[in-house]
Every structure is written in C-alpha cells, then in structure tokens.
Write a structure and sequence with these properties.
single chain, 336 residues, alpha/beta, TIM Barrel, 2 domains, 9-stranded parallel beta sheet, two-stranded antiparallel ribbon, 15 helices, 47% helix, globular
C-alpha cells in the first residue's frame, strides 16, 4: 500500500524514563543522539526523577537533539508554570525544546488526589495559553484553570507543541490545533484507525497553522533475546493497558476487567501485582517487543500510516544496547 503522509517532518524520537540518576539519563541522551535519534522525550511520572532536570542534563550532554517532556500533564503543574518550565528548557538547550502535553495517566493522577477533569479542554487551553505567553503576551484566562495577567519576564522562541493522544476526540483536536500528535499505540491497526481521525481534524485546520506531524509514540522493547525483551515490556504495558480507552480494548478483544484490575493495583501502589496481570496479548497490542528483526518489521508496518516514529520505554532489558538496536531498526525502516 502507499504510505500515508500528513506533511510533517520525519522525526526519529526516543523516550527516556528518568528511573536512573539524572546524569545517567544525560548519557543515554548522548547515546541516542549518536544512534541517530533527533528528539528525546523524558517521561513524566512522580515516582521517577524530575523530567525537566533530566531533559536539562540531556541538553547539556548533546549538541543537536531536541528535548521535551513526553508527556507533561496540566494537573500536577499549573499550565502557566508548565509553560514557563518548557520555555526555560528551550532557553537552556539553545532553542531545542519540544512541548509534549497530554491529559496524564488517570490511575497515577488519582493516586495523587487529582481529578482528571475535562481533559481535552484542559490540554487545549494549556497549550493555547502557553503559545500566547511565549509570544510575549500577558494573559488572563478563565476556563478549566485560572490565570490573571500572567506573563513571562524573558523572551521565548517558537516551541512546537505535540499532544499525547489515544482517543478520537484528542486526536482530532490535535490535528486541528497542535503542531503534531504523539499517538500512544504500538499496533498497526491502531494507527490505521488513528490516521482517519487525523484526516478528520485536518479538514478543520487553519491554513496558517502550518504542517502537522503524525507521530507514533510506541512502547518498544528490543534485545537479541526476544523473550527477555518481552519480559521487560511488562511495566509500561501495565500502565498503557490501565489507561486504555474501552474502544481500544474492544478493538483488540482484550479483557477490560483485567485492564481495570491492573489500574486498581497501580493506583494502590501494588506495581508487582499489576505487572503480573499483563497478558501476552496485551504485550502484542501495546508494545513492539522482540528481536531487532521483529521490531524492525513492526516499525515498518506502523510507519505506513505516520510521518514520524518515537521509540518509547522500556526500550529493552539492556538500555544502552537497546538504544543502539532501536536506532538501527528505525534507520533501516524504509518509509519512502
């Protein structure tokens, strides 16, 4: 079949999870840059190290790779404060920041006492206000959050906004208003479905908005030993399955009750129990896991539908080896 393209750039991205010391994450970023990745996202979970500290260290140890949260949510941090953090990262990195913004992981937010209220509206208002503030405007806003005469006392360049999405409404909103979407998925069927949602949103996109980048943000676990790669995939798959929308579970005939039980364990901090409930079918749907050949073939089947590809966590049982293997697999991917 002919590749679908939405006019975006061909980003080769990677997600690095700050479960390691910040300096080590910086080293992984340098390895990723050497392996051909052009964008590094840091995942945002309270139980790991601060993502902006990790991104700053990646920027310090690299020369050209773009850096950004993948993805931040506008509940734990006030949207204006979040915009300032991203702007600070842009200044520190010499204009290399990318703003990855999404609604956040529902079970984790619940564990912190946050209600994920009106997520689509919250995300949209957050990056619209951020753009106004980055442009040097003073903003008063009353919606899903309040800002009164808010602004920054330093200059900010243009920062691309990528929305982390999975459901149809968030995807369409992204295509209409953002610079790109980070589609949280790992199965070709999900990207074929999402490509149609992107096209629906682009029909309402103002011409002045510019090109739109449809990026796969796919959990990936690669190793020469395929079984070890699949075992390493259990933790991220647990979080993805717990937050998966019912239509996604139905599309792949996955057990909704099991996914809900995984979410309950995560909310209660019982991570081992949650990971043990991850089924082989969930790994197949929610992660690209296996040998380099298996991973390369799956990436190729996904990028038939997308402009860009981001290799998400866990990457593999040996993180350094996985960065190199993932970079090589993406480089060999023929996306024409």
């Amino acid at each position: 079949m002919a590749k679908r393209s939405f006019g975006g750039n061909y980003m080769n991205g990677i997600e690095l999870t700050p479960e390691h010391p910040v300096e080590r994450i910086g080293e992984f970023g340098a390895l990723a840059e050497a392996a051909g990745f052009d964008t590094a996202f840091a995942s945002c979970h309270y139980n790991n190290r601060d993502p902006f500290a990790a991104l700053s260290e990646i920027a310090r140890q690299t020369e050209s790779i773009r850096v950004g949260p993948g993805v931040a949510n506008p509940y734990e941090i006030h949207p204006v404060a979040l915009a300032s953090r991203v702007a600070t990262l842009d200044e520190l990195s010499g204009g290399r920041a990318v703003f990855g913004i999404g609604a956040g992981d529902a079970p984790t937010l619940s564990n912190l006492g946050y209600e994920r209220d009106r997520p689509l509206r919250r995300v949209l208002e957050t990056f619209k206000v951020a753009r106004e503030i980055w442009a040097g405007e003073r903003v008063s806003h009353e919606g899903t959050f309040t800002a009164i005469d808010a602004g920054l006392n330093y200059e900010v360049g243009e920062i691309p906004v990528y929305v982390g999405a999975q459901g149809p409404h968030m995807i369409r909103m992204s295509a209409k208003h953002a610079d790109g979407v980070l589609l949280n998925g790992a199965h070709p069927d999900d990207f074929a479905w999402a490509a149609d949602r992107v096209e629906e949103g682009l029909k309402e996109r103002p011409g002045a908005r510019g090109a739109f980048d449809f990026a796969a943000f796919a959990s990936l676990s690669v190793a020469e030993d395929g079984e070890k790669a699949r075992e390493a995939a259990r933790p991220p798959v647990a979080f993805i399955a717990a937050g998966a929308a019912p239509p996604v579970l139905d599309r792949h005939d996955l057990d909704a009750e099991r996914a809900s039980e995984i979410g309950s364990h995560i909310s209660g901090g019982a991570f081992s129990e949650a990971f043990s409930l991850v089924s082989e079918e969930m790994i197949d749907v929610f992660c690209i896991a296996g040998t380099p050949e298996t991973v390369e073939n799956r990436i190729r089947s996904i990028t038939e539908y997308t402009d860009s590809f981001v290799a998400g966590s866990p990457l593999g049982p040996d993180i350094e080896a996985a960065i190199s293997l993932a970079g090589a697999a993406i480089d060999r991917d023929c996306r024409g």
